[in-house]
Amino acid sequence: MTDQATSTIVPVKLGDRSYDILIGGGLIERAGQEIVSRAGKTMRAAIVSDETVAGLHLERLQAGLTAAGIESTPVVVAPGEQSKCFATLETVTNAILAARLERGDIVIAFGGGVIGDLAGFAAGIARRGMGFVQIPTSLLAQVDSSVGGKTGINTAHGKNLVGVFYQPQLVLADTDVLNTLSLREFRAGYAEVAKYGLIDRPDFFAWLEANWRGIFDGGPERTQAIAIACQSKADVVERDEFEMGDRALLNLGHTFGHALETATKYDSSRLVHGEGVSIGMVLAHQFSAKMNLASPDDALRVEKHLRDVGLPVSINEIQGQLPPAEKLMEYIAQDKKVTRGTLTFILTRGIGQSFIAKDVPPSAVLSFLKEKHPA
Amino acid sequence: MTDQATSTIVPVKLGDRSYDILIGGGLIERAGQEIVSRAGKTMRAAIVSDETVAGLHLERLQAGLTAAGIESTPVVVAPGEQSKCFATLETVTNAILAARLERGDIVIAFGGGVIGDLAGFAAGIARRGMGFVQIPTSLLAQVDSSVGGKTGINTAHGKNLVGVFYQPQLVLADTDVLNTLSLREFRAGYAEVAKYGLIDRPDFFAWLEANWRGIFDGGPERTQAIAIACQSKADVVERDEFEMGDRALLNLGHTFGHALETATKYDSSRLVHGEGVSIGMVLAHQFSAKMNLASPDDALRVEKHLRDVGLPVSINEIQGQLPPAEKLMEYIAQDKKVTRGTLTFILTRGIGQSFIAKDVPPSAVLSFLKEKHPA
Ligand SMILES: NC(=O)c1ccc[n+]([C@@H]2O[C@H](COP(=O)([O-])OP(=O)(O)OC[C@H]3O[C@@H](n4cnc5c(N)ncnc54)[C@H](O)[C@@H]3O)[C@@H](O)[C@H]2O)c1
Ligand SMILES: NC(=O)c1ccc[n+]([C@@H]2O[C@H](COP(=O)([O-])OP(=O)(O)OC[C@H]3O[C@@H](n4cnc5c(N)ncnc54)[C@H](O)[C@@H]3O)[C@@H](O)[C@H]2O)c1
Ligand SMILES: [Zn+2]
Ligand SMILES: [Zn+2]
């Protein structure tokens, strides 16, 4: 209650799909109150979570909801990327229906990006669309996946290839909940924070270079960084909700990153998403330098900062065997951001000057990859 | 080609989701041409169909698409309501991805309402939304399910409880394709045609009473009736795309009808949807008369016309055992159109004067059902 004044609000302006992101301490306890005061009524809720997050934080969330008059039913799935599949989607959707939720009731995604993507998809299809609230609990989910309305699951044909655009009505990013996140996952999320600086906020990147320790230590810099990251994402999403153009900028580092995730078979013991993005962003800057678009010094600066915070910055830091450059190139070509025949990449003219490059010659990418990853 | 001038166009005006419904002969052969000329480009297509429709008509459709430069991949599922399930949704979605369709490519629903609902849902979630064209082949699909953007599947918790609102970019209603439809299915679709007259078009109902034979025989009345039905549905959908209010009028006869479908366990040998709607519409008029809202003569007129065309008009025409009235009442209460506690029904003040009645006393419905269906 006493924390109320301290939460920062980032509005996401999408016409009748607009919503607020609240960022601050104590938001899990206060969730019920925030939801009811904004909705002007109570309702029922299904809380979709994973075993890890539920074990640590579910009780507090439910207590706050109950106190605010919201009856809730937990729907708990196994943690990890493998829950983003059709079978779990069916289980979660059926659980929402079994809880007898109506269209005015809400589905709460309570977990990392996996839970946000899965629960958001289920919320978007159960009764052709339920109320939906995101309470992201990983740094990655707070600064990236919970904002913007992309939901989805994976199939044999690739990651996130099936889903809906479905905006939440409210996002509650509790900065305290991140204290139980592993350092490795925290760092992975940090890669996405840094990404916003690299896309188009050079001052933010410089600020991160000076202040990243406060973010990791839970100082006021944490709330500040999450708010700027959310604002950055909101800006892009407001310009291009349905990913017809500009939104592709958010994929900086992701084309290389996804190829590496595929190469490691999404084995999180070897590479988690944010680590792939970290390496991918360094590669994107190096490749841009090689194409004479940006100075090599910028690539070095990106590499230094990400290494400082403890993130991997080169392909050879990945444990175990990797397929050869030719194979990585194939994975890149299969990536869904590729339009028939031509390669679209996010490249850069320097820190904070990223742009969408169409018609990147595949041969140039391949020879660059061979340099960075000799067989 | 020579038929081109004869197709009737009904526009559906939904802002940037607007589209046309084309109604007329020869549209299957001309589909490729119509799609390409409207899109201003060629593309790839996945054709979702069921075994029956594919066996009868797929070749002609594919030939026309190929001639127009559209490469197509058929995705054929078993006919019948049981294909509207998560497992088949997964199969169809994966087949769309396996065909390497991109967001600008199209999914074609080629079949009855089952295929439209299933393929539309898959089109809405594959790559978070593909191009989508409806080529409805049953009368019911042409006048009802292909228009308005509701897609979905069934679960153990009820029919159509999972899905998305996803509008097609074009609907091609080929009046010739209906010639291979069984008389029983044709009649079932006709119940939905008559429904539009009963909702708010008394003149159309009177016209149907005089002209229904031409519709069944494939005369010009068929195109005319389908066009008026589509226009009626489009009007309602334009007022209430996401079913927050008025769209509920389309459920005239459906609350009783769904209860009967549930009671017969969706066994199509006993009752198909349109037959349930036929009985349901008669019941809705009789119940309205009993509540002194409408004249009993109107109920008699509805009953007579539907019996004339060969549709069942009373509960006791259904083959086999039916559960008692109390059980039917339970099914009604479970229907998704019921808002917590209160019963919402579509009732009428006479032919073409239907309205949404909230707070219908369940006891009145039960005693009416006991009259119509004594144990
Ligand atoms: N929708 C989008 O726009 C978008 C954007 C980026 C990423 N994503 C998706 O997000 C997913 C990755 O998100 P993620 O990194 O959060 O993965 P995740 O959900 O798997 O979370 C990572 C791990 O942290 C644990 N965890 C989460 N919160 C915790 C907490 N407070 N304390 C302790 N443990 C906690 C989880 O149990 C899990 O084991 C991917 O599936 C990716 O595709 C989606
Ligand atoms: N989305 C909506 O707004 C909406 C509205 C009304 C009904 N529906 C749904 O539509 C479905 C019922 O539609 P339906 O009655 O078309 O069912 P259907 O798709 O099962 O078709 C009925 C039968 O006719 C066959 N058939 C279809 N076209 C044929 C042709 N030209 N020649 C020979 N056989 C043909 C099919 O193979 C099937 O066996 C239900 O699932 C219902 O929930 C949806
Ligand atoms: Zn990412
Ligand atoms: Zn119907």
Number of beta-strand segments of chain A: 11
Helix-residue proportion of chain A: 40-55%
What is the highest CATH level, the class of the largest domain in chain A? Mainly Alpha
Stretches of chain A where pLDDT falls below 50 for ≥5 residues?
A: 1-5
In this entry the ligands are: nicotinamide-adenine-dinucleotide, zinc ion
Shape of chain A: globular
Domain count of chain A: the total is 2
User: Oligomeric status of the shown chains?
Assistant: homodimer
InterPro entries (chains A, B): Dehydroquinate_synthase, DHQ_synth_AroB, DHQ_synth_fam, DHQS/DOIS_N, DHQS_C
Binding site for NAD(+) (chains A, B): 113-117, 137-138, 150, 159
Pfam families (chains A, B): DHQ_synthase (PF01761), DHQS_C (PF24621)
Subcellular location (chains A, B): Cytoplasm
Can you tell me about this structure?
2 copies of one chain form a homodimer. By secondary structure, the first copy, chain A, is of the alpha/beta class. Chain A contains 13 helices and 11 strands. Chain A has helices spanning 27-39, 51-67, 86-98, 113-125, 139-145, 183-200, 202-217, 220-239, 254-263, 273-290, 296-308, 325-334, 362-372; strands at residues 8-12, 19-24, 44-50, 71-77, 106-111, 131-136, 153-155, 158-162, 170-174, 343-348, 354-360. Chain A has a 7-stranded mixed sheet with strand order 1-2-9-6-5-3-4, sandwiched between helices. A two-stranded antiparallel sheet of chain A has the order 7-8. In chain A, strand 1 and strand 2 (19-24) form a beta hairpin. In chain A, helix 6 (183-200) runs antiparallel to helix 7 (202-217) and helix 7 (202-217) crosses helix 8 (220-239). Chain A is globular, with a radius of gyration of 20 Å. Mean pLDDT of chain A is 94; it is low at 1-5. The complex binds nicotinamide-adenine-dinucleotide (2 copies) and zinc ion (ZN) (2 copies). One nicotinamide-adenine-dinucleotide binds at residues 50, 52-53, 56, 79-81, 84, 111-115, 117, 137-138, 140-141, 144-145, 148, 150, 159-160, 177-178, 180-181, 185, 188, 273 of chain A. One nicotinamide-adenine-dinucleotide (NAD) binds next to helix 2, helix 4, helix 5, strand 8 and helix 6 of chain A.
